[in-house]
Amino acid sequence: VKEIIVEKKYLREFERNSGLKVPVKTYEDWVFGEDFAKKILNQHFGTLSLKGLGIEDNTAGLIAAGAIMNYLNETKHTQIDHIYRLYSIDKSEFIRMDNFTVENLELVNSSNEKATTLLQVLDKTQTNMGRRLMQRYILLPLLDKDKIERRQDIVQSFFDNRELSDSVSSILSGIGDVERVISKLAFRRIQPSELFNFKDVLKSIRQLKDTLLEYGSDILKEEALGLDCCEGMLALLDRFIAEDAPNNVIKGNYIASGVDSQLDYYREISTNGKNYINKTVDELIEKTNISSLKLGYNNVFGYYLEVTNTHKDKVPESWIRKQTLANAERYITEELKEIEDKILSSQEEIRQLESAIYDSLLNDLLKFTEPLQNNARIISRLDCLNSFACVAREYGYVRPTVDNSRDIDIVAGRHPVIERTLGAGEEYISNDLYLDCDKEQLRILTGPNMSGKSAYLRQNALIVLLAQTGSFVPARKARIGIVDRIFTRIGSSDNISRGESTFMVEMNEASRILNNLSERSLILFDELGRGTSTFDGVSLAWAICSYIHSSETKAKTLFATHYYELTGLENVYRRIKNYHVSVKEINGDIVFLRKVTEGGCTKSFGINVAVLAGIPKTVIQEAKRILNLLEGGCSIGELAEYSKGNPDRKKEEKRNKCLQLSFEGFSDSGLLQLKQYILQLDIETIRPIDALMKLDELKKMAEKL
Fold it and tell me: Which structural domain, as residue segments, surrounds residue 680?
């Protein structure tokens, strides 16, 4: 984005919320009025109504287009005839992803300058047009099964025919940016050398068409038939543009010889002017028989003829004497002056003639705008989909099955970006995923930090997204039921400028997700609730999982968490399943296996991760001691007493009692009361938050025993 147009009264709000650091142009509110937009657009398209363009009902789009057209007029962009249509991007045709999701998945940009994006992994395009279209494909994955499969068929054709794919890549590398040429042509900012080079582009388009028609599959031949070789345009360029055309019209000599006789005449004078004058002098010597006649030049009266006194009686009366010397006289003639004037003015004449011819040529070339734009669309599509095929061959991707079910079944899936950034000899550990709306709607994923939970979440979202762009996917096998929305709540951040803490940002994003669920949504929650206390975090995470499970949408969800208390959800809700990222503990050290396995994780391994991070040993030892106390049943209050110093014998005994979890010494009446309290609890109907409160009461009762 290079510049943004904003209604003046919304400028502060825009600057506060957008986060974009680009120039902003403001206009008064009338520029953003519907009536003004219709008026300025009808003027441009020469219509009385916008109904024929199919955009009349898109009020917001009309207003935006009108504001842009007003900006173009105001900034004196008068040559905009290449803008010959408007069309709406129907959001119902694409997966809905908000800015948070696009940023979290690092699709086309990353907040980390050193990070690799999905676009960078997939981009093996040969043209800037293809690169731009690939970015669009990634940001706007399709929802229509037939359109997805058409893209897949083209990718498959290139994938199966390596020789054709390589040939197409080679041809495309010589085509360049047709869209940019069209734009420069429309604004009359295109230079002669660019037009000369564009002849090669047109020849490459012809070569591409011939290659696809001869060697391509049926669907590639269908694409090729849409290409227009623009033979008329090529003929114009061959005729009018000089072979050594300069990169700027100011340098001149860009119109080919033979185009205009007058231009050729002035070029002859400009190039061979002195020879032409010498030839004229020779003719005068022969005509007048003045053998001593010489040609001279000075700044006072330009070119002159010098005649010695011996021959001055032979000077014709038509010659005009300008200077008398001791032994000679100097003359000028009308013919000589005319030639001189032509020589001196020839460059200006050449400039004017070339400019007029060039301007007329551009008008003729603009007639090819529509077929060129159509060519650009086809070429960018072929470039993008051929790039998908190249990536699939090189990285071992497979063609996914895309259907209208609500299932996601991925076998041995891999993260497309991370696997490309691994060091030599490292292998990415693949993992499966199965989600549906009947048996396994919500997957709780537990495991220690750094184990790969976040990568697993992103990996599956990216595979779904890739499948719906028409690309092959990094997996052994994949079947994707079309997803219409992808939501993510990944990472921790705050927005201090808007007075929002990390936890507030978390809750805002969670609220946005829960209020926009659909039957085909895919939701990724990563460590939700860590911005607040443990009790609050667990309560909210539990309640959110419960809400999603109970929702009529049955939205498919991956919920990664370090709250292993949430594994209890599997016992309450039938479509919630526990999985964990495997970790192997060897002599107190942990090895991350990166394998997602069925079942919950009952240990966080937080201290082990702290060791890997280089936390001082004294801190690690104290953390282990405190962990033992807490796992032994000690309360926070008791823990505070032990932390003051060495406990006395009585406190030591109490600590041991905590660690042993012994019920010796408990009164029978106390145990009976505790038993009755537990039996009265209705596990089937109790809300998660109430369950935690009851658990807290049970703990207090146990402390009194």
Answer: 663-704
| Residues 454 and 599 placed together within one structural domain of the fold | yes
- Overall number of domains in the chain: 4
Q: Which of 6-10, 120-124, 331-335, 701-705 has the lowest mean pLDDT?
A: 701-705
Give the containing element (helix H, strand E) for 559: strand 556-561
Q: Return phi, psi of residue 72, to 5°.
A: -65, -40
pLDDT in tens, 16-25: 666 666 777 8
446 with 358, same domain? no
Question: CA–CA separation, 682 vs 691, rounded Å?
Answer: 10
Instruction: Give pLDDT tens digits for 616-670.
Output: 878 877 777 777 776 666 666 666 666 665 455 455 555 555 544 444 445 556 6
- Taking a C-beta distance cutoff of 8 angstroms, is the pair 526, 490 a contact? yes
Distance, in Å, from the CA atom of 685 to the CA atom of 540, rounded to the nearest integer, reads: 17
Q: What is the pLDDT of residue 495?
A: 42
Residues 292 and 331: their CA atoms lie apart, in Å, by 13
- Global pTM value: 0.77
608: buried, middle or exposed (CB in 10 Å: 19+, 13-18, 0-12)? buried
409/298 same-domain check: no
DSSP labels, 186-230: HTT---HHHHHHHHHHHHHHHHHHHHHHHHS-HHHHHHHHT----
Residue 325 lies in a domain: yes
* Residue 67 maps to a domain: yes
Instruction: Indicate if 461 and 522 belong to the same structural domain.
Output: yes
Determine what percent of the chain is predicted with pLDDT higher than 90: 50
Helix or strand run (H / E) with residue 308: strand 302-308
Domain shared by 401 and 358, yes or no: no
Q: What angle separates helix 192-215 from helix 162-172, to the nearest 10 degrees?
A: 170
Residue 485 vs residues 307, 423, 587: alpha-carbon distances, Å: 95, 34, 45
CB-CB neighbours of 238 under 10 Å: 13
Mapping DSSP to helix (H, G, I), strand (E, B) and coil, where does residue 4 land? strand
> Are residues 306 and 427 located together in one domain of the fold?
no
Which range, 264-268, 412-416, 605-609, is most confident?
Answer: 412-416
**How distant, in Å, are the alpha carbons of 137, 220, 282 from that of 67?**
27, 40, 69
What letter would DSSP give residue 400? P
**Residue after which a domain boundary falls, among 547, 581, 614:** 614
Based on the fold, state whether residues 415 and 527 are members of the same structural domain.
yes
Please check whether residue 412 is in contact with residue 384, taking contact to mean a CB–CB distance below 8 angstroms.
no
Torsion of Cα atoms, 631 then 632 then 637 then 642, to 10°: -110
